[in-house]
Amino acid sequence: MNTSFDSIVIIFSGGMDSGTLLWDLYTIAPWREIHALTFDYGQRHKREIECAKRFIKECDNVTHKVISLDVLNDVAPSCLTRPSMEVPHGAYDGDNMRTTVVPNRNMVMLSLAISYAIGIGAGNVYYGAHAGDHTIYPDCRPEFVDAMNIVSKLCDWSPVEIIAPYLNYTKGQIAELGVSIGVPYELTHTCYEGSYPPCGKCGSCVERAEAFEYAGVPDPLLRKV
Amino acid sequence: MNTSFDSIVIIFSGGMDSGTLLWDLYTIAPWREIHALTFDYGQRHKREIECAKRFIKECDNVTHKVISLDVLNDVAPSCLTRPSMEVPHGAYDGDNMRTTVVPNRNMVMLSLAISYAIGIGAGNVYYGAHAGDHTIYPDCRPEFVDAMNIVSKLCDWSPVEIIAPYLNYTKGQIAELGVSIGVPYELTHTCYEGSYPPCGKCGSCVERAEAFEYAGVPDPLLRKV
């Protein structure tokens, strides 16, 4: 299998960050063959997956695969997947958001995305980790991505590189970029409670509101309500 | 969650190598809480999973979880999972066995085992990679295991170490060790064709036969036929 650097894989949750990344890649390099993977790991914010499907309809020629990952829900406890655990409200910071961590979620998703990339001969896997997540989620930090890239080069004969272009952006900066390139944010989902209209109270909603405030525009998701 | 170093996770396929490792851990340190994970990724040698279940019945107090990993079959092409591709017969070497590689299989399985270990507070994940696989499977090589250990330490707050004690053993040496500690090899499965009695022709059968020849004993699986 020859590696095609025009062919890329992106992990697309249906949220703001990976939505911006997908739109960014789609609009900047329309000649690239984009394969978006959305993982259904039993997250209570299932609406995110429906949003991912609607978002993709706006992107011509982007292949979309929703991958059932019940296994992650099965092996890894988190309030995002276990209805018996409460979603924390308030600040989006390390202590408050600890129960939202799905243990090792990103290594599982990245390793499957790498498998997929090897299978179709794609050279890159993109994912939308950003600086605002570094405190809460160890698997969104630069050193994690660097280490994953080392292991990714060793796991097979085909070189697959993980690229996380927003690794040092805040969510506010992502929103600012996204607004400038016309990301259809009304089609993204953020609320960890899975609510629509968004609950406005969970850490994830709080962080989204701060991002749009930074970008200086109202959140189109709220305009629709 | 506190990490318990008495609690360990092992990836147990139902084959010879991980069977020897499981028996080794089980007999050497019976006070440890052992959690064996078997992944069903649609391998054509399904009998391996049935063997895993029978093998575990011989191990008191070992917890066994069979994890459905259809997703790997879905994303990663290999003759082990796709009936349309033929299993190679003959020598167990790199060129001949190339189509048996499930792209990035071990990173996927290890990352899920790490998730599980974090969830239950176990400190180690054991897996039975060995020297005979180094040429064929990049994700069985020492440098891959070392790199996985770096990323494993970065993915979460709980330290999980991957331990592959047979990394520099040949399959013959594993068989020799296993015979000396009484591994019930008649309950393991090796044939990539999934046949019982084993086909005796696929690379995997050829390698098993060589291992028992090295150990100087007949394969109990063949005695049973």
Report on the architecture of this protein.
2 copies of one chain form a homodimer. Chain A has 225 residues and is of the alpha/beta class. Chain A has a single domain (4-224), classed as HUPs (Rossmann fold), CATH 3.40.50. The first copy, chain A, has 9 helices and 5 strands; from the N terminus they run βαβαβαααβαβααα. The first copy, chain A, has a 5-stranded parallel beta sheet with strand order 3-2-1-4-5, with helices on both faces. In chain A, α1 links the parallel β1 and β2 (33-40). Chain A is globular and about 45 Å long. Chain A starts with a strand and ends with a helix. The mean pLDDT of chain A is 88. At the A-B interface, α3, α5 and α6 of A face β3, α3, α5 and α6 of B.
List the defining traits of the structure above.
homodimer, 225 residues, alpha/beta, Rossmann fold
Concise structural overview:
The structure is a homodimer of 225-residue chains. By secondary structure, chain A is α/β, with parallel strands linked by helices.
Superfamily at the CATH H level of chain A? HUPs
Give the CA-based shape of chain A: globular
Total DSSP E strands of chain A: 5
**Whole-number radius of gyration of chain A?**
17 Å
Average per-residue pLDDT of chain A, rounded, comes to: 88
CATH topology of chain A: Rossmann fold
CATH level-1 class of chain A:
Alpha Beta
Q: Number of DSSP helices of chain A?
A: 9
**Fraction in helix of chain A:** 40-55%
| Uncertain ranges of chain A | none
Write the CATH architecture name of chain A: 3-Layer(aba) Sandwich
Order of helices and strands of chain A: EHEHEHHHEHEHHH
- Could you tell me the strand content of chain A as a percent range? 5-15%
Number of domains of chain A: 1
Q: How many angstroms separate the termini of chain A? A: 48 Å
Report strand order across the widest sheet of chain A.
3-2-1-4-5
Which chain pair has the greatest contact?
A-B, 39 and 40 residues
- Helix and strand content put the structural class of chain A at alpha/beta
**Assembly annotation:** homodimer
| Main beta-sheet strand count, sense and barrel state of chain A | 5 strands, parallel
